[in-house]
Amino acid sequence: xxxxxxxxxxxxxxxxxLPTCMYKLPNVHAQQGNSCISEHALQNGEVDPAVKALEARxxxxxxxxxxxxxxxxxxxxxxxTPDADLDLTVxxxxxxxxxxxxTLKGTTDLDTLIGKDQGALRDIVVNANPAQPPLTLLVxxxxxxxxxxxLSTVHVHSSVSxxxxxxxxxxxxxxxxxxxxxxxxxxxxxxxxxxxKLEMKFSIQNMCPIKGEASVARFLFKLLAPYPxxxxxxxxVDSWVDTAFFQLAEGSAKExxxxxxxxxxxxxxxxxxxxxxxxxxxxxxxxxxxxxxSASSAPANVQRWLKSCENLGHFGxxxxxLQ
Length: 323
What we know:
Helix content: 40-55%
Number of helices: 11
Structural class: alpha/beta
């Protein structure tokens, strides 16, 4: 009943019917009881389920926002440079293991080498032809991932098709935190594309592309350790790198045999090609020996050196591509 009704009854008395459901008042005692329970739960270190649900929802919203941000940054690459025309994101990984100081001597600073971080992820973009996989880059990527927090991504350009699965996963599996780009120090983007020669861009606006696997390898290695300060030693490293790419990888059978004899002689005097320390010369020559198919027929000192390289643990990705 929504209104008062006055009804006359016998004897002159008046009956008033009051509304029974005009107002609903909250159960104060029940609320007080719930409040006491919540306070008791908080005192015992428990969290209100409603708060938990709210936090979970906030985390999910932040995750989606970071995914959206990463997608927008990927599209920005496509707009700013045709070399980064990304059609398919394949994998993304994060590595932050401790770097073995026994592998490479010297320390490097990213801000000094490639400029101070202004808030955006510093991304190295490499275009490579799947018909000629750059083995040295996989080894250097493995080393970089142990020195820095690297966001690694593989893409496929529309100019190529039927890319083998091992090339799609060559930088490792997609990491759960790949949307959170602020967690990383360095981006490593590999794009499988129909290019005549491997090329790399770091700063799209201010830098011409670096072309050739040897040149790109030199750039990446300098992010790990400085080149030898001794000019003679630096020249020796460069000489072995050029020999690896121009004679071992692209030379005739006679040239490869000559290089293998030179390797055997040098490794009879020192454990590594540039002396007592591991260097880019070892990375380049190891990869080119493997790529040329000369590993099984190599002389004794070269065989021993190949095993020493493999024992370092950084050459696994390169070997997998050739299996």
